[in-house]
Amino acid sequence: MKNSQLNERIIMELEGLITKSCGEKRKSKRFTQLHIALLKKYYNAADVSIDYHRHRIEMAVLADDSSYTPGKPNINLPIIYTNLLFGNLRTFLRSCIDRDRKSLGFYAQLLSNFRKEKEVYSLV
After folding, report:
1. How far apart are CA 48 and CA 67, in angstroms?
2. What is the pLDDT of residues 17-51, one digit of tens each?
3. Which of 12, 19, 24, 35 shows its CA 20 to 30 Å from the CA of 74?
4. Share of the chain residues as helix, strand and coil, in percent rounded to the nearest 5
5. 21 near 35, Cβ under 8 Å?
6. Tens of pLDDT, residues 59-108
């Protein structure tokens, strides 16, 4: 019961963050990075670019996970180039939320990193 409440809280906070990030006319760099991270996770994409003005997302989606080897240069991977159009970014991003254990862990880490304030370094 406690675990399911935690999972629902993660989903609710992520949906709230998506709503907040889509409410602004000008997207900040942090919100753009959030959108790209969600899309990369959901679509298993290697490269994502979002054109907010034209409501278009361009992605290079990895077609076969078995050919990917972490820690090794992967030059000849099967990639599908995709061009998606969206009507409402908030609705589209919310539809990209998975509820499996691995995804919830990713979202929790994403929320944790997003909450951290920018660290300011100065010369003493």
Report:
1. 20
2. 999 999 877 778 889 999 999 999 999 888 999 99
3. 35
4. 50, 15, 35
5. yes
6. 999 887 777 676 777 777 888 999 999 999 999 999 999 999 999 999 99
Distance CA 89, CA 91 (A): 6
Rounded to an integer, what is the distance from CA 82 to the centroid of its chain? Answer: 16
Residues with Cβ within 8 Å of 66's Cβ and at least 6 positions away in sequence, in order, are: none
Q: How many CB atoms lie within 10 A of CB 39?
A: 21
What's the CA gap between 75 and 69, in Å, rounded? 11
